[in-house]
Design a protein that fits this description.
2 copies of one chain form a homodimer. By secondary structure, the first copy, chain A, is mainly α. Chain A contains 16 helices and 2 strands. Chain A has a two-stranded antiparallel sheet with strand order 1-2. In chain A, helix 3 packs antiparallel against helix 4 and helix 8 packs across helix 9. Chain A is globular and about 65 Å long. Chains A and B meet through helix 2, helix 4, helix 6 and helix 7 of A and helix 2, helix 4, helix 6 and helix 7 of B.
C-alpha cells in the first residue's frame, strides 16, 4: 500500500495546479464554489487512475497538445464527479459532505447548481481541446451515464429492487462509469491499443463497482469515521446491500411492514413518489441501523465487493512493472478503506 | 416571407420525429418533461437554420452515419436551448413560458433540473455519435457559452452596464451562440469549406444577436401578445436596451434613485447581490413600464437590431439560390416578429 500512497501524493501538486488553472477560466461568481468543491481534500482517485494507466501504457504515439498536458486530461472526470456531487447535495439536501458543510449550505442552492453546470461544461470543453474523437466519445458517455444514473437512483428511491441488477445498474451509473472513464482516458491519451483500452475500461468499471459497494457498507459506520450520520441511505430510502440483507432476515409480515414504510420518502422528487402513508420514525431508523451493524451486514457487503475486485485484478493479468503494482495496490485500498 | 414559413412547416415532421426518437432514449421519469418542453409549439428556428444551411452548402463529402440523419444533428442545439430554458425557469422562478404554465410549476423544480441535465447529456452524446471533431468542438463551445452566459447574466442582474459590451456579451452567451452553432452544424454536416463554415457562423451569430435584441424590445409588449406580463426584464433587473434608454432620459438625480432601486433584486442568487435597501414598488414598476412603452424605446431597440441583421445579410453575399432566399427571409422574420 505504501507505494500507491506515495504515488497519489506525488500526483497532488500537478493535479492541483491543473485544477487551479481551469477554475480561473470559469465565471467569477462560481470560482469560489468550484474551489471549495475541488480543492479541499479528497484523494483525487480519478485523476490518479488516469495518470497511472497513462504511465503504464504510454507508447510511441501518445496524444499530444501544444499547451495542454496529461494532467489537464486527468482532471476532467474529477470535475464531472464534483459537479455531480454539487447537484446531488442540492437534490438530497444533505448537510454534510466529507465531514464538512455541504457547498449548497455555504453558498446557496442556485449558485451550486450553476457551478455544477459550469464545471460540466468547462470539463467537456477542456477535453474537446485535445481534438480526439475517442476521448470525446468517453466524455459524452460519462456525461450521459452520470446524468441518467442520478435520475435512475431517484426513480428507485423507496423501492426494494426486484432484482440485484437494478441496484448494480444504479451504482454503475452513479459511480463506476466515471472511474471506468478515468482509466480509459489514461489509456487513450497513452496511445494504447484498442485491446489495452478495453482492459483499462474493465479494470476501472470493476474497481468502481467495488468502490461504491464498499461505500454502501461504510454508510453504516460511526459518524466520527465517515463525517455524516450512520444510515444515511436508509433515511434516503436507497436500498443498498446492507439494507437488502436486513430485509431478507425479516419474517414475511415484517417484510411487508418494512417495505411499506420504506416506500415513504422524506423528500419525494418525482410525482409518483408522493405518498400519504406514514414512514419510519426517527427511533425506528436508529434501531434498524443498529440491527444492521450488529448483524455485520456491512462486512458481508464488503464480501460482495471482492467479486468485482477479483475481476479488476484479472484485467491486469497481461501487464508487469511498477504501475501494475500501483493498480493492484489501488484494489487493496478500495477493499480495506474504512472512511 | 411565405417561402420561409413554408420551409419551416416542411421541416416540422422530420424534426419532431427525431426529437421523439431521442426522448425515448431518456430515463422514463424525465420523458414527460422533455416532451412538454420540446414538443409543444415553438417554430424550432434552430433546427430549421441547421437544415437550410446544410441544404445550401451540401457538397461532395457530407458527414454521414449508418443510422443517424441530418435531422438528428439538427435537434441537438434545440435540446440545449430547451435545457437552458428549463434551468432558467427554475432559477428565475418564472410562472409562464410561451404563455403556458412553466415546466417547473407543472412538474416540480428538481425534476426539471434533472430533465435539463439529461437533455444536455443526451444531446451531447447524440452529436458525439457522428464521430467528428469539428462537430464536437462546436457542441462543447455551445455548452460552455450557454452555461457561462447564464451565470454572467445573473452576475449582471441589478447592475447598469458600464459599457454596451457587457450587455452584448450576455446576449451572445444567452442566445446568439446557440443560433450561431445551429448554422455552423449545418455547414459542417454539409462538408463545407472552412471559409463557408465561417460565413454560416457569422450569419448565425448576428441573427442571434438581433433575435435577442428584438426579444428585449418585445418584453415591453402587452401580455396578450407575449403570453407573460410586460416589463419582466425590469422586474428581474436585467438592464436591456429599452431600460437603458429610459435611464438615459432621466436627470442625474433621478438616475441615482433609479440605479439604487434597480440594484435591489426581488430574488438574489449570489451572495454579493443581497441588499438591505428598498427596491421599486409594484406601482413604480408599472409606471416605468408604461413610460418606456410611450417613449417608444422598444421601437428604438429594434433599430439596434438592424445593425446585426445587416451584418448577417453580408455573410450571405457569395451565395445564390432558393436557400439563400430562405435565409434572407429568416432575417425579415426576426426583424418584424411581434411575439
Amino acid at each position: 500500500m505504501k507505494e500507491f500512497a506515495k504515488a497519489v501524493l506525488g500526483f497532488q501538486e500537478p493535479v492541483t495546479k491543473a485544477l487551479q488553472n481551469t477554475i480561473l477560466t470559469m465565471p467569477q461568481s462560481v470560482q469560489k464554489i468550484a474551489e471549495y468543491a475541488l480543492l479541499s481534500g479528497g484523494k483525487r482517485l480519478r485523476p490518479c487512475l488516469t495518470l497511472i494507466w497513462y504511465n503504464m501504457l504510454k507508447g510511441a504515439n501518445p496524444i499530444q497538445h501544444s499547451t495542454l498536458s496529461i494532467y489537464d486530461s486527468a482532471i476532467v472526470l474529477e470535475m464531472f464527479h464534483v459537479a455531480s456531487l454539487l447537484h446531488d447535495d442540492v437534490l438530497d439536501d444533505a448537510d454534510l459532505r466529507r465531514g464538512k458543510e455541504s457547498a449548497h449550505i455555504k453558498f446557496g442552492i442556485r449558485p451550486c447548481l450553476l457551478a455544477g453546470d459550469a464545471l460540466l461544461a468547462t470539463g467537456n470543453k477542456l477535453m474537446a481541446e485535445f481534438q480526439n474523437v475517442a476521448l470525446m466519445s468517453v466524455i459524452s458517455d460519462a456525461l450521459l451515464k452520470t446524468a441518467n444514473g442520478e435520475i435512475e437512483e431517484i426513480e428507485l428511491a423507496g423501492k426494494v429492487p426486484s432484482h440485484e441488477q437494478e441496484y448494480l445498474s444504479v451504482i454503475e451509473g452513479k459511480t463506476a462509469w466515471i472511474i471506468r472513464s478515468a482509466c480509459l482516458v489514461g489509456a487513450i491519451m497513452a496511445g494504447a491499443s484498442k485491446e489495452d483500452q478495453e482492459k483499462a475500461a474493465n479494470y476501472g468499471l470493476n474497481l468502481g463497482m467495488a468502490f461504491q459497494i464498499v461505500d454502501d457498507a461504510l454508510d453504516f459506520s460511526d459518524e466520527s469515521i465517515i463525517g455524516k450520520p450512520a444510515g444515511g441511505d436508509l433515511r434516503e430510502r436507497k436500498c443498498t446491500p446492507p439494507i437488502f440483507m436486513y430485509l431478507q432476515s425479516l419474517t414475511k409480515e415484517e417484510q411487508q411492514e418494512f417495505i411499506e414504510k420504506f416506500s415513504v420518502l422524506p423528500s419525494p422528487i418525482f410525482e409518483h413518489q408522493k405518498q400519504e402513508k406514514i414512514g419510519f420514525t426517527e427511533q425506528e431508523l436508529a434501531e434498524i441501523t443498529q440491527k444492521i451493524i450488529q448483524a455485520k451486514y456491512p462486512e458481508k457487503t464488503r464480501e460482495l465487493a471482492s467479486k468485482y475486485l477479483q475481476k479488476a485484478e484479472e484485467s491486469l493479468h497481461d501487464f508487469t512493472g511498477q504501475n501494475k503494482e500501483l493498480l493492484l495496490e489501488a484494489l487493496e485500498y478500495v477493499r480495506s478503506r474504512n472512511k
